[in-house]
Known about the structure:
33% of the residues lie in helices and 23% in strands. It has helices spanning 6-9, 62-70, 115-122, 130-143, 159-172, 189-205, 217-223, 230-234, and strands at residues 24-33, 36-46, 51-55, 77-85, 88-89, 100-103, 177-181, 210-214, 227-229. Helix 3 (115-122) packs parallel to helix 5 (159-172) and helix 5 (159-172) packs parallel to helix 6. One of its GO terms (molecular function) is ATP binding. Residues 24-233 form the ABC transporter domain.
Amino acid sequence: xxxxxxxxxxxxxxxxxxxxxxxxxxxxxxxxxxxxxxxxxxxxxxxxxxxxxxxxxxxxxxxxxxxxxxxxxxxxxxxxxxxxxxxxxxxxxxxxxxxxxxxxxxxxxxxxxxxxxxxxxxxxxxxxxxxxxxxxxxxxxxxxxxxxxxxxxxxxxxxxxxxxxxxxxxxxxxxxxxxxxxxxxxxxxxxxxxxxxxxxxxxxxxxxxxxxxxxxxxxxxxxxxxxxxxxxxxx
Length: 235
């Protein structure tokens, strides 16, 4: 992946974010599916710029935890405890008021939109004016080494290029924290390593508390952050 310019990255931080980045905090957090606890009394502090990892087998509740943090959890589940950004409690808020960014296994680009239109979709409405929005898009593409891609059809992009566009769209939404739901799992080994480094560099440059869900030990070891195993949590 091309080198990053941290000063440029800072130009599209949240305008209304706290002056100093704040941690993502889970306090005595429990998640239950109907009558079964997936885990209980989880306490976790993810510092700004830290990438914490949650590991475990399929079906153990990893992705459900991310859904709980983002506010998109199915009504089949129930939760207790608190999800906070610093001292601010997100728990009662709907997803659109939490400003949590998410990356999935699929890039989820809109096929009927150009690359630039996909990126524009992520920019908050508070950024007014076509010129200002275009400047953010062009800056983001420049940072990612894709300077002339604004008018490209997503169908013409390689897998790695599509993945980078998905990251940029998430960052342009100016999130306060970042959740990664196995976004590297469908990539081949060489591309996986480059894309993983790209995502982690950007998360750290933006000082985003980041939680990665994975079953791959290489993903976990590359974060240099806290690693939690769901098996340990549940025992």
